[in-house]
User: What shape does this take?
Amino acid sequence: MVVQSRHAAVGRHHQLRGRRQAVHRGRRRWDVTLAGLVREGAEVGGCGPRELQRHHRRIRTQRLIAFAAAVATLLVATASGGGEIRRIRLCADPSNPPFSSQHPTEPGFEVEIARALADAVGAELSVHWFPSTREIVVLRQLYESRCDLLMGVPVTGRYTDDKPRLLFTAPYYVMTQVVVAPMVGGVASIEGLPGKLVGVQAMTLSDQLAYERGWNRKVYLKSEELFAALVSSEVDAVVVESVIAGPFLRKSPGFRLLAVKDPQRELPIGAVVRKTDAELKDAVDRALKTLRDKTVPDILSRYGITLAQTAPPPASEPAPLSAQLRSARSTYLTQCSQCHGTDANGTPAAANLRAFKGTEDDFLRVVRNGRPGTAMTPWKGLIDDDDIRNIARYIKGL
Assistant: This one.
């Protein structure tokens, strides 16, 4: 963030200070007076001691006058309060979807919200891309003025109280913990998780939740591995943060979400700036008031996050899948869903399998032989006949 004052002399003062600070002090360092004298002494040449003294005093007087004038101008500019925010530098991770990324069409909802905030403030947004693996290193980017705004931080007392050098904005969404499970044969309530194998991502709030509740859990390092395990039926369900579940559910309609009702685990998320940037913090808060009702929800919904936080509980507990149907679900999701969709409702590239009117034998024949003239290739020899029949039964149960 750059605050551009209407008083041009302020810029000159900063330049003056910048040059003075570039001259080191202390042991084995340049002194500003000595450095100035050496430069000016080279110009006066071989003059006598008295002339050199007068020259030195004249230089110091000129510097004091210039410094006093610059300070006076700075005080007037500060008192006038005439600054305005022209540019905001955002700190963001280049590869942390759905939060942020350098993808041209899906830059992440944090980046999109930051753009909306900058537009509302009337500022230009630039991004300082930096990996967010360690919090202390990320916050250092703020402290050292490499960026001005960091999105996606908790705004609870437990997080903010020990950070006196920062100012936190109002929250713009609430992160919750959720359970994602298959629609067919999966658990239909939180109470159904004991005795099931639950996938979690290591060192997350969801991992902590599953541990505290005593669920049998399997730990994965990355969310991609976690959801791959769910699709392949390696686990019965996964526990994740709502912002992680949303994008998966948007692309995987064969799964549903179960909300974890626990106010103690609801985490309001906002942004953070340096304590010295109170003007930026106030501007962001004002912008959030205008964007909260429509713009922010619209951005979140494009990433599936609204869906993740408002999913209703299922009406009833479904019957558990047999081992054969669990295997069929895994085969369908890994081999067939790319064309027919995870819910088997079809895509522009392939037919709606739930609308198939033939018998199980008809389904077997089509899968074995394919459909000439279409993208449906023969699967004979690639999938056993019994597995194809089980896939037909799995689809019928959707």
Q: What stands out?
A: Residues 1-47, 63-82 have pLDDT under 50 and may be disordered.
